[in-house]
Input
Amino acid sequence: MNAPKIEEETSLKIDFTKDAKADGLSVEAVPEAQIKFEMLSPENPILHFGEVFLFESDLDDCGYTMSKVRFRVMKDCFYVLLRYYLRVDGVRVRIFDTRIFHEFGTDFIHREFQYRESTFDELRSRGFDLSSEWLLNPN
Output
């Protein structure tokens, strides 16, 4: 998702093109960088993992919202997923994901931000099952 779409939909002002430097650290946008998901496969055993719910609400029975952090540490890397999820029943679903990945021994931490949103009408038109079973499942 590009910055203008995020700003239009959420009023967030995010400058993806600006490089920043502070205290000997530098931050730069590297569009071609990718998280090495192959390092997160079952062949790379997890040494430590966790999941922390930051908040959760049923929105007075009109939907569901939650924010949580999931992380895992392997012998050669770590991976963090911060997810914000919002579902307003009959209206829309919105997800903000921030993924952080670091391969030990490198001087690079990868941060990936993803924003997805859809109305219930758009989901229905794509054939998504919006049954009560789905609405009651917070996962």
